[in-house]
Amino acid sequence: MFGLVRGKWKDLRIQSKFFITYLLLAVIPLSGFGVAAYIIAVNTLEQKANNSYRVITSQINYNVDAVLRGIDRMTILPFIDQRIYSAMTKLKLTTDTYTEEDFQTEKEIEKEMRTYFTSLQVLHEGIIAVYMIMDNDQVYGYTQYSNIISHNTLKEQAWFQETILRDGGFVNSGLRLETQFYRSNEKKTISLARHVKQVDTNESLGVFVVDIDPYIFNFSAQQPRDGYVVIADQYGNIIHSSLPIDKESMTELMDAGKVIGPNMRSIQWGARSEKMVGVASTSEYSGWMTLYLTSKKALYQDLSHISNLAIGIIVVILLFSVILAGFVARGVASPIKRLSRLMKKVQNGDFHIFSTMKQKDEIGLLSDSFNSMVIELTQLVERIKSEEESKRKAEIDALRAQINPHFIYNTLSAIKMMAMMQNANDIAKVLEIFIHLMKYCTRSDRKWVVLQDEIEFIKDYVALLERRYMKQFAITYTSDAGAERVWVIPFLIQPIVENAIFHGLDSGNSNHKIEILMRRGDACDLFIEVRDYGTGMSEEKVKSLLNANDEYKKGLSGTGLKNIHERIALEFGKPYGLTIKSVIGEGTIVTIRVPWKPE
Q: Membrane-spanning regions, if any (predicted)?
C-alpha cells in the first residue's frame, strides 16, 4: 500500500506536490487539534457519566440494602422476644412428649404465634408471609394470600439447607418460586431466614422465615429520565428491570464488563437497536447487583452540537488554505515544468534527450545536473548490460561443464567392489549406465534439452546409486500430456534428486520413496515437483539452501540448489526458480518453475 501511494506521488506534477504539501500543512494540525479536542471531550464526558452512574447504582444498592437490613433485624426477634422464644421452646417440648394436654397447648401456641406473626407484617412494607419451620417439619405462621402448608416443603432447597448450616447466621434465598403456600400459583418471592436454637442447651428449635414481595424493590429503583435500571440477586436472577433482558444476557454483560473499582464494572451493550453504556455495582452486604444503562445517543447528544460547530470552523479554514496553496504552488512550479517533462521521458527509458535551459539560478544548476545524469545513466546502463551478459554466459558455461572428480572416484570404486564380489555378471550393465551419464555430462554444446532426456538421465543416475549402495529407491514419475517434450536447462532436476536421496533419506527412514511430478500450470508454465518422505528440514535450513554458496556440492554435477535457482533466474527472470517446502518428520517438496516451451 505504501509503495502504491509512493508511486502515485512520484507521478504527480511539481505544482500538485506543492499544492498537496501546503494543504496538508494546514489540514494535519487542524485535524489533529479537532480529533484531540473531541477525544478529550469524550473522555471527560464519559468520566463524568461514569461517576454519575456510580452514584446512581450506589444509591439504589443502599435503598435495596436498607430493605434487606430491616428484614434482617426482624429475623433476630426469636432470639430477643421472650414471647416467641417461649412459644417455640414449648412447641419443642410438646413434640418430644405429645399428650392430649400437649395437643391443646400446641393449638394455643399456634394461635398465639399466628397472631404475633400477623402483627409483624405491619412493621415493614412488602412482607407477604412470616412463619416458623420447626425441627419436626411442622410450619406455624401467617400469609396474607392463602393458608400456609403445615409441613415443610422447603427442606430440599439449597437456601434452606444453607440456613441450617449457618447456625444462626442471616441467609438471603434470592428470587425463588413460593411452594409453602396453598394456591401460590408459582408466585415469586424472596425468603430471609435464620436458624433458631435454645440459648441454654444450644438445641435446634427451627428456622424463622420472612418472605417478601420482589415488587417492593421497584420503588427502590425508579427509572431515571434517560436510563434503565436492572436489579439482580446474588445468583443473577432478575428482580427488577426497566428494559427487556434475561439472566443469560445479564451474565454475559457482567463477564464482558471492565473492572473500574471495588465491586464496580463498566458495561457496554450492543444487543439492542441502539448501543448502550453504563455501570454495574455489587452490594457487599447482600451480593445483589444493580446495573444502570443509558444510550450512547443520549450521552453524546450535547457533544454532537459542539462537534458540528468545530467541523464548520475547520471547513472554512480549509477553503482558505486551498486558495492560498494553489497560488503558492503555481508560482513555484512554473519554472520547472519543462524540466519535469524531460525527467518523465528519462523515467520511461529515453536517455537521448537533454535540457536546453541556460539559466544561472538554481533551475539552471538543476538543468546541468540533469544532463550529466542522463550521460552517466546511458553509460551505466550499457556497462551493466555488457557485464550481465558476460556473467550469464560464463556462469552457464561453467555450470554446464562441471563434473565432480570425487563422484567419478566413488563410482569407479563401486564398480571395482562389484567386480570383486561378483563374477562380473552386473558390471556390464553398470558400465553401460555410467557411460550414458558421462555422455550426458560432457556434452557442453547444448543449451537446452527436452525434459524426457533429463528424466532418462535421472533414471540412469538412480540406477547407478542403487547398485553402488545396494538398496532400492522407489522413484515414481508422473507427467501431464506433452510435458516430456518441453525444453529445459540441462542438470535441472538431478541435484534435487541427489539432495533428496542423500539428505532427505539419511536418517534410516524405511520409506525410501521419491515422487517426481511434471505438470502444466495455469500461466503456461512448467512445474516440476520433487517430493521425498524423509526427515524434513527446519525453516532456517530451508532458507540456508537458497542462500548458501557451497551447500551440498558433492554430487555428480557439483551444483547446489542456490546455483539451480540462479541459473533459472538468469535465463527466464525473477518469477521463475525454486521453492522449497519442508516439514520435519514428514519430508520435503522442491518445486521448479520454468516457462512451457514445447519442442
A: 20-41, 309-333
